[in-house]
Design brief:
Elements (H helix, E strand, L loop, with lengths): L1 H17 L6 E6 L21 E2 L1 E2 L11 E7 L3 E9 L19 E7 L7 E8 L4 E10 L2 E5 L8 E7 L11 E9 L15 E12 L2 E6 L17 E5 L2
Parallel strand pairs: 1-4, 1-14
Antiparallel strand pairs: 2-4, 3-13, 4-5, 5-11, 6-7, 6-12, 7-8, 8-9, 10-11, 12-13, 12-14
Length: 242
């Protein structure tokens, strides 16, 4: 009997230990005033925004462990996104729209405006130069997907501010900040404009460092064995509130 009881408790403990982490939820508040997209995060509206902190998930990576904070706001015209990142060595080589900015010091947001499906979402990958790689990612079959690079966001406003020297290896930088304003028209094929109570799904990521010492940090853990943020089933909740 004692062995049976011990087995039951051990099995229950293992089940609890192996349970996946919950999907996180973020409340997107309405902006309390105008936001100037200059990359500096000085507008009063940002002070009231909730903060999402990214975490290092894959211990096999050898890149730096820098802190990354993200904030979101909304109003009648835009979804606003900001990143505040520590970075001791700011590097970014790519300069043209739809270049592979994820190879630079870069931040990313993936947005699914229709949570009832997980086959399509919009990706924004933005480097420290404020260069954007945007696309529509669509699942095309089991373990396969297509990135539609010709997808272009309309009316996007984007800016960064560097507290350091870009691409000057060996000096000591402090970090950089990014602001983006995304017009609602870009989501109309997938969803109506949000109102208080609307829930979308999204995730936030960052690439930091120079090969071979690179690290990805992420907000909602994708439970992937290797650094792969493209797991829409594990995107967190974006809850719009007044």
């Amino acid at each position: 009997m004692r062995l049976l009881v011990l087995t039951v408790f051990t099995t229950a403990a293992l089940a609890q230990t192996s349970a996946p982490p919950p999907i996180p939820s973020y409340e997107v508040k309405r902006a309390s005033g105008p936001i100037v997209i200059d990359g500096k995060l000085e507008d009063k509206a940002w002070a009231a925004a909730n903060t999402a902190e990214l975490a290092a998930t894959w211990e096999s990576q050898t890149g730096p462990r820098h802190k990354t904070l993200a904030r979101l706001l909304w109003d009648d015209d835009y979804l606003y996104v900001s990143f505040e990142v520590e970075d001791a060595d700011i590097t970014a080589q790519f300069t043209q729209r739809d270049d592979p900015t994820y190879r630079d010091d870069a931040v990313e947001i993936f947005i699914n405006p229709r949570p009832s499906q997980t086959t399509a979402y919009i990706g924004l990958e933005m480097n420290a130069r404020a260069v954007l790689y945007d696309y529509l990612r669509v699942t095309t079959g089991p373990n396969s997907s297509q990135f539609f690079k010709r997808f272009q966001l309309e009316g996007l406003r984007l800016a960064t501010f560097l507290d350091g020297t870009l691409n000057a290896r060996g000096d000591q930088d402090r970090g950089w900040t990014l602001e983006a304003a995304i017009p609602w028209v870009n989501f109309e094929e997938l969803a109506r404009r949000p109102a208080p109570g609307t829930v979308w799904r999204f995730n936030l990521n960052r690439w930091d460092g120079v090969e071979p010492n690179r690290r990805m940090t992420i907000w909602s853990n994708p439970l992937a064995a290797w650094p792969n943020p493209h797991v829409p089933e594990r995107f967190g909740e974006m809850r719009f509130v007044q």
